[in-house]
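How a chain folds remains the central question behind the approach discussed here. This step matters because it turns folding into a mapping between discrete strings. The sequence in question and its structure tokens are set out directly beneath this paragraph.
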Amino acid sequence: MSGRGRAWGWAAALRGGSTTPWQAWAEDGVGEPFAERLPGAQQLALLRRLNVHAAAAGRTVPAATAARILAAGVSGRGRSDLPIAGVDDERFGPRPVDPDTLPDDELLRVASALIADDVAATAGEPAPERSLIERARAVRRPWVRSFVIVGMQWRADAVRAELVAHGHRPGGRRPTAYLLADDLGTVLAQAWTARSFDQGGVTWRHFLRSFAGAGHLPPRADLARMARSAAHKYGAGNVRVVLDPALLADELGVRAIAGPPHLGAHAVDLVRRVGEPLGLLVANDARPGLLLDTLGVRLAGQGGPAPTVTPRWAGWLSSEAERTRHEIAAAGYPVLGDLDQLLPRPLGTDGVLPVDAEVLSLALGLLLTPVTAPVQEEG
């Protein structure tokens, strides 16, 4: 049978739930085209992997999802569909490839674009109506002291939202500025997380290399700079550096200070990848909120441990942490907690980095049960 007919037959089998690899596909007969063009190697490989993922969960891939994957484009500037080895003698264009040997990164290009479409589809959905208790909690307490929350963006945004939900609205006359801080490794990881939601962009490895190689901290992780900015705006005497959230809770008169959802290194990397094609579908200012309300909610608690600085940059991390500690101590800001907590925690032998295979596993889950589907349908 012809290579192209064999490929159409394989594509049809994958559309029906087959998990057979391309090299093992040896069905007799010629497959009939069911679309204007033969899907690319990336799309076919992704659908096969999703079939495997679904079968392991005791599920099948919905026909509409399979059709979406086979018709999908490829995310990334200058990217195109890759032809399948053994189908045609391609003289021009990309070199034909064996779909079974494609790296996970290539499959993630297709998956990210599809997930971005799903995230964009949630734009404009009405927010769920708050309960009577939630509305009562959100009423501003006039006796609450004036305050603002600054510092680590990923954590500060979550703390503000939680406090507002309980009637502790930031602002007021001459507010106290509480600067949220942590050990510098954690601050860097949260800076990359916030950037992944806001801008997408570079990988964790490149993020570290670009700033460590230049010998300075990214603005989102420079706590000493944030403290100076807060002092300039609110007055140095009104800045408090927070290293113990329990002490902040005591000052504000709340039971506890909630943090942001935990997203492991693999989960953040998936958000970063989805953010790129999503930026072509929605306004830039809408992208972070959409990602947080969809992927942030669905991926909470997943993705392994948070990313960590690799031993290669241990010297830079240590020197920047010591500098930060010295500058904050010299400025004399009151501290809730111990300034030594700014110093790095012990680094592992390799560091925690996103792994494409783990990122793809999360993406497959979001394709099988998209963010547009009720969460209870998972499983």
Observations:
- The mean pLDDT is 89.
- Residues 138 and 164 are 6 Å apart (CA to CA).
- The chain has two domains: 3-102, 136-377.
- The two ends are 40 Å apart (CA to CA).
